[in-house]
Amino acid sequence: MSTSVSNTAAAPLTMQQKRIRAILAGIPVRLTVLILVVIWTVPTLGLLVSSFRPAAAIRNTGWWTALFAPFTADWTLANYIQVIGADRMGLAFSNSLLITIPATVIPITIAAFAAFALAWMEFPGRKFAFVIVVGLMVVPLQMSLIPVLRVYTDLRLNGTYLGMWLAHTGFGLPLATYLLYGYISSIPKEILESAHADGASPMLTFTRLIMPLSVPAVASFAIFQFLWVWNDLLVALVFLGTRSANVIVTTRLAELVGSRGQDWHVLTAGAFLTIIVPLIVFLSLQRFFVRGMMAGSVKG
Amino acid sequence: MSSVAKKDRAFEIFAATPARILVALIIPTITFFVLLWSFNFMRDSRAPRIMVAIVALIVGVGGVWALYLALNHLVTQMPMRIRDSLLPYVFVGPALAVLTAYIVLPSLRTVTLSLMNRAGTEFVGLDNYIFAFTDPSMLITLRNTFLWLIIVPAFTVSLGLLIAVLVDRMSETGEKVAKTFIFLPLAISFVGASVIWRFIYFYQPPGMAQPGLLNAIVVALGGSPQGWLTIRPWNNFFLIAIMIWLQTGFAMVILSAAVKGVPGDLLDAARIDGAGEIRVFFNVIIPYVSGTILTVTTTILILVLKIFDVVFVMTSGQFQTGVVAFRMYQEAFIFRHFGRGAALATLLFIGVLPIMIRNMKSMKERR
User: Fold this and answer.
1) pLDDT at B193 over 70
2) Do the Cβ atoms of B60 and A102 come within 8 Å?
3) pLDDT in tens, A62-92
4) Dihedral over Cα of A141, A145, A151, A152: its sign
5) A100 and A19, same structural domain?
6) Is residue A10 located within the same domain as residue A113?
7) I want to staple A117 with a disulfide (CB 3.0 to 4.6 A). Which of A121, A264, B19, B33 is the partner?
8) In this structure, what DSSP letter does residue B226 have?
9) Environment class of A224 (CB within 10 Å of its CB; exposed 0-12, middle 13-18, buried 19+)
10) What band does B135 get if pLDDT is binned at 50, 70 and 90?
11) pLDDT per residue over A109-129, tens digit each?
12) Which chain B residue shows the shortest CA-CA distance from A262?
């Protein structure tokens, strides 16, 4: 603070000139960034605006006309009412939640136990198990679909919540284990030794010490896995199918595109309903989200 | 004193062990049967959906913990030596079991299925792979996959790097806001993004209103509206654009962290030597972040290799827009040709194999 004041006092003119020059030099940069931001935002904006317009208005005029004359344009909630009720997006929404929450919690639990053992317990095959986990991270899930579907058919797990949870648990587990291992293995040795000296069993150490300490890593992975499962289409198409009671937001929306591909009032409202949860998660938990996306980018 | 006490304690453990083990066995058994019952309940129940849902949530979230605690209880009742050698497997065992059941065994099965006929009943050698590399429609599919693999990483990485460098020169708030907007599409599902872009590419015959943004622009500039998704082979580029839109934010965020790591001294030295901003960008920044560029490129390559949803929603693979991961789904689950589906899945696996081996090697060396 004081240095900047003395600088300004010593050479006020050059400082001002410098500042003006810096602002001028910054204009191309800002303009370029602004253009890119607009290009990146307009698609989603068009969807959002259209979802509140009457069907006929969407068909006959561009959404931007309503945006430029917001007070004279017609706005409506009818699209949402229709898509939630008659088009079963409400049901799909609740199904998505019911599948996504356990499909996030279960792999985290299993992975945390495994990561703790891999990081802090001695047993034969430990190193080998860890290398395998790392290798499995990038295996495309297409490799699992056909055989697992066959087993599911025999066990009558097709079209069940349970089948979906387990499938997403399996596909998310390598990444979850790897991430939590990275975090849990970096917990200082002294903390674990003192717990051991106090007579804490491994289970107690895990539940009372490791889990609370791992919250940041768990949060990052939880967000990644939540969004991954919520946004997934392929696993749901194969194991859950599109029978009416089982639809989730992604399969329902894909189905709507197929059956009512020109009904933009339905499609825009439906699409906005499917992306609203990820958007809220993103905007409220951006820091964890970015960390999770970065860490999770290697998933197979 | 110590030897007597030791004997006593040893005896105590010995005497108490059978009873304790019995109890300990009962607890996991009960847990197991409760889980099994709820499993059947969830699968077969005609109870109201909300009931099933509640049971599902409780079992799903609590059941897994219960199973671990029960197993742990069982093992801790055992004599010390057995306990210490078994306990790690209580922790790591379920994870390994799930990985084996959902990834390892199915993958091996998929490789063998890829050498078998449609229903997986007869060995057909490499027929499915020959199909994959000779069938005319597959050749187009391979060409498209190749296009995706080249264009998406090239654009996302260079755009991401450009934005990362540009926003680095803005005020902190400006940078944060700009990054948020570019990053936002990453939260959107491929299905949602596909609907967004179908609307942009929407086509109405000439003379009618054009609510689709792209055709509206074309008409405003005096052109005639196009059915973008049906013009081959250019329709592939319109699908690829969606992926670029979605993934640029990812490249930007990671590259931005790397760009901020370029030492200021290095940049100043280059500028003092008379290098312009463009030369600084190419001769200082890019070499410095080349490792990160490689990582981001690899990640996006893996992602693009498996792209399925965009093609499924936009065109269902019509108009020559299929890609390998989409064809895999189509062959296996629509045409029910499991042999071909498995072969295409195996091709995807072969695609990531070098990365997998490299990752495993580096892990082995590190520890």
Assistant:
1) yes
2) yes
3) 888 888 887 877 888 888 888 888 888 888 8
4) positive
5) no
6) no
7) A121
8) -
9) buried
10) very high
11) 999 999 999 998 888 888 899
12) B202
- For residues B294 and B161, is the Cβ–Cβ distance under 8 A? no
Are residues A88 and A8 both part of a single domain?
no
Q: What is the mean pLDDT of residues A273-290?
A: 84
Question: Considering only CA atoms, which of A137, A211, A135 is closest in space to residue A180?
Answer: A211
Q: In chain A, how many domains are there?
A: 2
Per-residue pLDDT band at B308 (split at 50, 70, 90): very high
Decide if A109 touches B, using CB distance below 8 A. Answer: yes
The span from the CA of A217 to the CA of A291, in Å, is: 9
Q: Write b or e for each residue in B142-171: b if 16 or more Cβ atoms lie within 10 A of its Cβ, otherwise e.
A: bebbebbbebbbebbbebbbbbbbbbeebe
User: Under an 8 A CB cutoff, do B103 and A36 touch?
Assistant: no
Q: Do A138 and B110 touch (CB under 8 A)?
A: no
Which of A58, A76, A94 is the C-terminal boundary of a domain? A76
Whether pLDDT at A250 is above 90 = yes
A147, two tokens: 């055989």
Q: What is the ipTM of this complex?
A: 0.86
